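Retro notes (design track)

What went well: tokenization of the new backbones is finally stable.
What didn't: we kept losing track of which sequence belonged to which structure.
Fix going forward: every design gets posted as structure first, then sequence, in one message. First example under the new rule, 313 residues:
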């Protein structure tokens, strides 16, 4: 007989996460989905659920998407961009950004907002709360186009280009290109700013948001606390700190207020409740298909996500 392992999973939370995930993906007829619950201070994974539709039309646990699937995150990456811009001192939350009619063109690429007529002139805070692609692209492009390395270096300093080296095998690789690399172009900065031309796994995104909730301290997700042989403990695993501070305390505090604003006034208002405050960010990304790019006729596939923490304080 092999050793026993003691996991971080909480069976009640696991049950709740699986049920919530199943309910949502059946409602939206999604191909697959995942839900992960992480404890802020320890990094303990209290629940992790993955479901994919089978040829029988039912959902099954087939693959650990949370650990292994690296995709373009879309709007959840706007937090990384805003933290970089705030830390570099190139944007204040009260700055006015002109998002115009909700479109902006860089070379041959038009970036659009999801509001039909656009949001016009709004503050940087509102850009984030209403998830404006145009506003985010303008903030990053206008402040970093002369020196794109500064933006990417800031992302790298927050450990976003490094795998987490998890206790589970098969982690998807993060992708954040560096200026001058193959495929870097004039549209890379504005595209990266709102979560395209980059790739992260759900767990890598969660780890960053967890660091914001944890006042800047980034901890590694933990699945196993100890290995036992009968009653004898063979090995224990403590909480591993990846970075003591991903950015300054003042930037973290502003990032936390941005995430609370999304639920109070923005794209996640449906989560607002009278029991406790929630902080987080919605994400929608168009999914690139290997054969047709982002569009197949009139059909566009989307990846929808939400990442956040509660209670917000």
């Amino acid at each position: 007989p092999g050793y026993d392992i003691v996991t971080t999973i909480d069976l009640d939370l696991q049950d709740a996460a699986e049920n919530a995930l199943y309910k949502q993906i059946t409602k939206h007829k999604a191909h697959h989905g995942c839900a992960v619950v992480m404890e802020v201070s320890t990094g303990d994974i209290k629940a992790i659920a993955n479901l994919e539709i089978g040829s029988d039309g039912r959902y099954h646990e087939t693959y650990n998407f949370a650990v292994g699937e690296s995709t373009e995150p879309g709007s959840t990456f706007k937090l990384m961009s805003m933290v970089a811009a705030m830390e570099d001192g190139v944007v204040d939350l009260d700055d006015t950004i002109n998002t115009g009619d909700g479109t902006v063109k860089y070379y041959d690429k038009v970036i659009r907002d999801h509001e039909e007529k656009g949001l016009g002139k709004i503050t940087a805070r509102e850009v984030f709360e209403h998830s404006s692609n145009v506003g985010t692209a303008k903030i990053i492009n206008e402040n970093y186009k002369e020196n794109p390395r500064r933006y990417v270096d800031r992302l790298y300093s927050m450990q976003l280009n490094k795998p987490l080296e998890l206790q589970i095998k098969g982690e998807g690789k993060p992708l954040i290109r560096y200026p001058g690399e193959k495929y870097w172009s004039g549209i890379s900065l504005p595209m990266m700013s709102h979560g395209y031309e980059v790739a992260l796994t759900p767990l890598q995104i969660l780890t960053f948001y967890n660091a914001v909730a944890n006042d800047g301290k980034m901890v590694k997700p933990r699945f196993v606390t100890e290995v036992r042989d009968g009653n004898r403990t063979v090995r224990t695993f403590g909480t591993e700190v990846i970075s003591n501070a991903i950015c300054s305390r003042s930037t973290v505090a502003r990032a936390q207020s941005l995430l609370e604003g999304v639920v109070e006034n923005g794209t996640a208002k449906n989560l607002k409740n009278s029991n406790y405050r929630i902080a987080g960010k919605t994400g929608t990304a168009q999914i690139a298909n290997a054969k047709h790019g982002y569009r197949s006729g009139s059909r566009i596939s989307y990846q929808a996500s939400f990442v956040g923490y509660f209670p917000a304080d």
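Added context from the reviewer: The mean pLDDT is 96.
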